[in-house]
Amino acid sequence: MNIIFKNIRGLLILQILCYVFPLIVVPYVSRVVGPSYLGKINFSQSYINYFLLIINFGFDFTATKRISIIKDDHKALVDTFNEVISAKLVLFLLSLLVFASLTYFYPVLKKDLLLHCYSFLFCIGGVFLPVWFFQGIQEIQQLSYITLLIKLITSLSIVVLVVSPETYYWFAICTSGVQVLGGFVTYFIAVKKYHIPFYFTGLTRIWELINSEKLFFLSTVVIHLYTTTNIFLLGLFVEAKEVGIYTASVKLISIVSSVCITPISQAFFPEIANRLNKDKADGLGMVQRLIPLVFFLTLAGSIVLYGFAPFIVKTIYGNKFIEAISVFQYLCIIPILSSLSMFQAQVMLSLKLDKYIFYISLAAGIISVCVNLLLIKQYSYYASAIAYILVEIFILIVGFIILQQQDLAVLIPRQFVFSTVKKSVMELIKNKHL
Fold first, then answer.
1. Which residue has the higher pLDDT, 186 or 264?
2. Domain ranges within the chain, ordered by starting residue
3. pTM recorded for the entire structure
4. pLDDT confidence of residue 1
5. Mean pLDDT of the chain
6. What does each C-alpha distance from 95 to 99, 109, 407 come to in angstroms?
7. Long-range contacts for 202-209 (Cβ within 8 Å, ≥24 apart)?
8. Which residues of 184-214 are buried (b: 16+ CB within 10 A; e: fewer)?
9. What's the rounded mean pLDDT across residues 1-10?
10. How far is residue 152's CA from residue 308's CA, in Å, rounded to a whole number?
């Protein structure tokens, strides 16, 4: 139990760090560089994220699972560690070739060649930062300390070096440089502390590893299509200032959604999965009672966000980002839609209906790309906001239909009646469960 509580504490620290430091750094940077340069920075990051996605290849999940199973077998631990690092090195070299070709020969990318190169250095840190290893051996607390140091150094260096719009590129240098340093330091800690001699795994074994993990990798690519591709497509067709306006709004909504939804998801998912596996009716009943509570909470939160949008945007980003207010207000519906979809996805995962999640995500990604390509030139960042909302609505509706067809409905109208919701709240308060 001590290990579990240490890991909970470590994960909590990591979660807080993910939100605290951006909330400190983003207001400072946005005020110093303005919407145009912030747009350049965020577009560059969205571009580089594709290569980071390839290099990670889903190992943050799949390798964590493998390490957790064989952590007491030192030879298997060494083999797995070197297989993953070797695969990442090969994927990095392939990514470097693609990055160099695209960035040099594509005019829209070439105009900010230096910025993209600085941003791409982040991928080196992605190769060597063994988050998956520390999570697998359940040393989350140690990882949280390293993450704290990386975030702190990055934030301080950005504040010191990004002092005018013309110094915006230092943001990418600081972010990538500290990530690379943190990656090397963490890698050597893992190698020394756990006595892991490095050797390069043969290409045959690397291919086998990549081939075995390709389905999970494809699922992460599909999700990426409708979550962050909006920013990249926007950057290809409109001015940097418009990218800055959109990304300012999306980052705020992402933080709000994560703060509201992630704790609920992490807290209830184990219990939902456990109940569904033991007694499907009991598990579905729990989800059916829980959804209205979360719906009304997120509805209330979204109404507050919508009403206070001008104050929130001006306080965090400053007066240069006034245009982001309306986009932020449009996106205030996202936390509501995401929370409902989350429960549907948890039911599917718990009952081994993963394939439906993949198909829904793939269709959502295609819809997102198509809507953006059709509307961006005419409606700019509003097109990306519309695509984001439409995709979330699509995911919710299709998930609802699939669960209905499987006799697993979780959205029950009578559960949204005030008296029923009140009863569920009182039961939760009194008995600590639904």
1. 186
2. 2-212, 240-431
3. 0.81
4. 41
5. 85
6. 6, 16, 44
7. 203/90, 205/83, 205/86, 206/83, 206/86, 206/87, 206/90, 209/83, 209/84, 209/87
8. eebbebbbeeeebeeeebeeeebeebeeebe
9. 49
10. 30
